[in-house]
């Protein structure tokens, strides 16, 4: 039985608590938050110990895995310190996205986890769905042939005006990660962004990408759309066919070349995913599985390195926007390819 703790217990942290408690091989033992009233309430609901100081929790509790679900600026400025403390203690850690809103901190987290031989994962939950896994199988089997392009759209409604780059850094670790999951590392990007009427942040973005394989791609992202409608669409095409995933997990369609037939896999009403929050469940379950199977930290699915790779692309896109649409090369990262 793995013993788990959650740091940061607002909305997202509570979701982590829920799915740890539902896992048959996990015991949630503690929660930690600077807000004493909040953490005591959540601890009482979960029947676990409450802490307002992470160092004390690490000293007093036996913990195998920690979720860092703190927030901060651009949803990531408060991830670094708790994650580094967990890594220092030799505890496997799952961090919410972005790994950090500061690229220097994200790089340090990944390197420290490597040196400590600790599993560092990131909640890149959009890829942890049956549709994405099946699409990846088709791609790896060669059903699509040589990949030629990947088109991604992730658009939601979010009025947050706290930072010029909140839309890029807080939302698009997901979309970049999905694109990398299917097509591998990205070589260079070019970005153009705009602000919706009345907005002060770069709330809509158009980003061109070139992959190391030679395939090309495009990402459309926005904080200016309506959450009542589908938020995500991903199209992957090769010289033998193409596939489309509709709305994260709802439908997967394969269009083979030289055939009038298509293959459609729908999310089952009775046995499929019941809602978006189950992407969190799938992601947490995958991390627990990696720990239980003693997967080498280098091969964790949705690893810290994957999150850092996505963040490097986002920072390059921001630089491109600042440089009037210049084409920006992505820094080369040491380590394995996308898992």
Automatic annotation (TrEMBL):
<feature type="domain" description="Gfo/Idh/MocA-like oxidoreductase N-terminal">
    <location>
        <begin position="3"/>
        <end position="121"/>
    </location>
</feature>
<dbReference type="InterPro" id="IPR051450">
    <property type="entry name" value="Gfo/Idh/MocA_Oxidoreductases"/>
</dbReference>
<dbReference type="GO" id="GO:0000166">
    <property type="term" value="F:nucleotide binding"/>
</dbReference>
<feature type="domain" description="GFO/IDH/MocA-like oxidoreductase">
    <location>
        <begin position="135"/>
        <end position="243"/>
    </location>
</feature>
<dbReference type="InterPro" id="IPR036291">
    <property type="entry name" value="NAD(P)-bd_dom_sf"/>
</dbReference>
<protein>
    <submittedName>
        <fullName>Oxidoreductase</fullName>
    </submittedName>
</protein>
<dbReference type="InterPro" id="IPR000683">
    <property type="entry name" value="Gfo/Idh/MocA-like_OxRdtase_N"/>
</dbReference>
<dbReference type="Pfam" id="PF22725">
    <property type="entry name" value="GFO_IDH_MocA_C3"/>
</dbReference>
<dbReference type="InterPro" id="IPR055170">
    <property type="entry name" value="GFO_IDH_MocA-like_dom"/>
</dbReference>
<dbReference type="Pfam" id="PF01408">
    <property type="entry name" value="GFO_IDH_MocA"/>
</dbReference>
């Amino acid at each position: 039985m793995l013993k788990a703790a959650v740091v940061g217990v607002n909305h997202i942290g509570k979701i982590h608590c829920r799915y740890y408690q539902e896992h048959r091989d996990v015991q949630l033992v503690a929660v930690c938050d600077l807000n004493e009233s909040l953490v005591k309430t959540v601890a009482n609901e979960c029947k676990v110990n409450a802490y307002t100081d992470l160092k004390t929790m690490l000293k007093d509790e036996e913990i195998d895995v920690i979720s860092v679900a703190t927030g901060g600026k651009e949803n990531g400025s408060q991830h670094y310190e708790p994650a580094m403390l967990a890594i220092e203690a030799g505890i496997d850690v799952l961090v919410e996205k972005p790994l950090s809103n500061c690229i220097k901190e994200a790089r340090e987290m990944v390197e420290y986890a490597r040196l400590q031989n600790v599993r560092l994962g990131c909640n890149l939950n959009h890829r942890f769905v049956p549709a994405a896994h099946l699409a990846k199988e088709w791609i790896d089997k060669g059903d699509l042939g040589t990949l030629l392009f990947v088109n991604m759209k992730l658009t939601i409604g979010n009025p947050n005006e706290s930072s010029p780059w909140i839309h890029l850094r807080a939302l698009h670790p997901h979309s970049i990660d999905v694109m990398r999951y299917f097509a591998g590392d990205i070589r260079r990007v070019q970005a153009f962004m705009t602000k919706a009427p009345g907005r002060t942040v770069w709330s809509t973005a158009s980003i061109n990408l070139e992959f190391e394989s030679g395939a090309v791609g495009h990402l459309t992202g926005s904080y200016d759309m309506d959450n009542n409608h589908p938020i995500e669409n991903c199209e992957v095409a090769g010289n033998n066919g193409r596939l489309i995933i509709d709305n994260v997990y709802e439908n997967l369609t394969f269009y083979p070349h030289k055939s009038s037939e298509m293959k459609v896999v729908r999310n089952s009403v009775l046995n499929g995913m019941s809602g978006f929050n189950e992407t969190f469940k799938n992601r947490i379950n995958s991390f627990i599985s990696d720990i239980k199977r003693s997967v080498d930290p280098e091969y964790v699915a949705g690893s810290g390195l994957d999150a850092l790779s996505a963040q490097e692309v986002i920072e390059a896109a921001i630089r491109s926007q600042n440089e009037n649409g210049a084409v920006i090369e992505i820094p080369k990262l040491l380590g394995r390819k996308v898992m």
